[in-house]
Amino acid sequence: MIESTDPLRLEIAAAAARLLADGATDYASAKRKAAQRVLGERGAPKASMPDNDEVDAALLEHLQLFDAGHAERVMQRRRTAAELMQRLAEFHPYLTGAVWKGIVTEHAPIHLQLFHDNTKDVQIDLLNRGVDFDVVEVPHFRGGPDVEAITFWMADTPVLLSLYRHDDLRGALKGTRGDTGPERGDRRALLGRLGEAA
What we know:
Helix content is 47%, strand content 17%.
């Protein structure tokens, strides 16, 4: 990603970052609302809409400036994710999203993608562990039909498990986000990030 020097694009990215820090969870709607706040009713030129990487950069800057607990929150959620990934090892968990990237608002869940051919096995495992969960749907990381997902709380931490077929794992490992590296990592990769931070 080439860093933008367009002041309007940077202003919209900063406004979207503030919305995300305040609890918005959807980048697309945060960018739309941010553009509306910056420009009023007239729409933003397409070239002035920031991409997700630019919003991430603005969000990280915002959290580092205004959220004294951010660094500790990243470490705590990554440690919790590593523990959860060990428990769910048979379902081939990969960490993605905010906790993987290290840009963690108070509302950001630990998002694990599980690659296993029977989603009921995951639900049965959680029920056997006494986990109270809800079933929702989330967009597939490659587009196409939504996939089943499970949400629950682990102590005070929100968790999202999105459920994929084992064959989806091949495509998942190819995914990168420009210069920012892989979009997800297994437990070993996560432990590497925890080690680097320590």
